[in-house]
Amino acid sequence: MTTMKQDDPDASKASAPWQEGGCHCGAVRFRVRLQGRRAIACNCSICAMKGFVNVIVAAEDFELLSGEDVLRSYRFNTKQAEHRFCGVCGIHPFTRPRSHPDGFDINGRCLDAGIEGWEIVPFDGQNWEANVASIQ
Prior knowledge:
The protein is mainly beta. It has a single domain, classed as Metal Binding Protein, Guanine Nucleotide Exchange Factor, Chain A. It contains three helices and ten strands, in the order H-E-E-E-H-E-E-E-E-E-E-E-H. The longest helix is centred in the N-terminal third of the chain and has 7 residues, at 9-15. It starts with 8 loop residues before the first helix and ends in a 5-residue tail after the last helix.
């Protein structure tokens, strides 16, 4: 039998609970494994207009449960980030961000449990190039 050391970061990650979320109409559902209760409030044009609160996770911490068939994609500017939205209700539950192209950026407002009581950190996305290194 293999035991995990308490200070092993993979051990704490594996024990982190999965949380579910989705779009407004319920056609898109996902689950995500969160390591904390911290999100980013970006002031770039798209995040500000959508009201997107960014929760960045590794690819292995995200699973699309349903809705691939209704998801639509929007890309702008450098076309590196893929903004996914429900083609039925229009809500943007997650993106494939330019800052973390191998991960996912979850809209914290689309989590079933919400983000009440979370630490929300401002990010100057209007000056993305100068500030992107501050995103962890």
